[in-house]
Amino acid sequence: MRLSKGLYTLTQTCTQLACAHARVHAGFTHLQPAMTVRWSHWLMCHAAAFQRDDMRLKDLMPRVATSPLGSGALAGNPFGVDRQFIAQELGMAGGVRPNSMNAIGGVCPNSMDAVCDRDYVLETVFFASTLLMHLSR
Does residue 26 sit in helix, strand or coil? Predict the structure, then answer.
């Protein structure tokens, strides 16, 4: 995943710069000068946030990589579509977990849930907005 690699590179860059530069500058709280802090400490604050973003992305991907294809409009389809094959071709090869009510990757085990689920939208928007907030600091 390119985004995960980018977050890793960004975190590593922050860490390398923090190790190389330990100068002191004014810290700010509520846009007001506060205690002095090391620049390295400020950089590692960002590295920690990017690490959490990467963990959040890795946690998100198996849930949003669930294929609804072949579910039809409500209760499946009569055409004998190989849902596992389609999911595998699309890179969603997790399959249906037999001892679980929900799929983690692969195909969604319930056609009604597959066509009405919007969790993936909410989770993706939450991840993206959190990442962008961290990048904007």
Answer: strand
Q: What is the pTM of this model?
A: 0.77
Smallest CA-to-CA distance from 54 within 92, 120, 9 is with: 9
Separation CA 88–CA 103 (nearest Å): 14
Match 């959190």 to its residue by tokens: 130
Angle, CA of 114, 52 and 31, to the nearest 5°: 120
What is the identity of the amino acid at 116? C
Terminal Cα distance for the chain, rounded: 24
Token duo for residue 26 = 């004014």
pLDDT digits (tens, 9 = 90+) for 2-56: 999 999 999 999 999 999 988 998 888 888 988 999 999 999 999 999 999 999 9
Q: Could you count the other beta carbons within 10 Å of the beta carbon of residue 126?
A: 12
